[in-house]
Design a protein that fits this description.
globular, two-stranded antiparallel sheet, single chain, 6-stranded mixed beta sheet
Length: 156
């Protein structure tokens, strides 16, 4: 299971105990916010896109929506999300648990600027019922991000 890969990933940093697993689904922003009892915007959702022939992950705030124009300016292509069956194959995590940790080689991870308004956020951990609370500097470190992008709209 992907959550086991994420636990092993965080174990090398002595952080696996910080992963929270729930008896309920956290597969959507709303469900995750309910499970964590936090504001939906603090859920760090990971969106999977096909750029050229490889997977690109954008980690964005829960209240942010991808802006197609900004995405095209950033990546020189239309925003095309991976199909559900492509996500696990190309990224290593199934829909509902996609996260920027312990992903397959060649997957590029970017953090959207919509996250920068928070001290801590809650990304998933490889399953549809898990999350970890990370500071923004921790998310930057452990996601192995290639940089920040500004590809979203609609957030406060």
């Amino acid at each position: 299971m992907a959550i086991d890969k994420v636990k092993a990933y965080f174990k090398q940093y002595g952080m696996e105990e910080r992963i929270q697993e729930f008896d309920v689904s956290s597969a959507t922003v709303e469900l995750a916010a309910a499970a964590l009892q936090c504001e939906p915007q603090r859920i760090a959702k990971t969106l999977s896109f096909l750029v050229a022939d490889h997977a690109v992950l954008i980690v964005a705030a829960g209240d942010a929506k991808v802006d197609n124009h900004k995405f095209k300016e950033q990546f020189s292509t239309k925003a095309k999300m991976l199909l559900a069956d492509q996500v696990e194959e190309m990224v290593g995590h199934a829909v509902g648990g996609v996260c920027p940790f312990a992903v397959k080689d060649g997957v590029e991870v970017y953090l959207d600027v919509s996250l920068q308004r928070f001290e801590t956020v809650f990304p998933a951990c490889g399953s549809a019922n898990s999350a970890i609370e990370l500071t923004i500097p921790e998310l930057e470190t452990y996601s192995g991000h290639a940089g920040y992008v500004d590809v979203c709209k609609g957030y406060l």
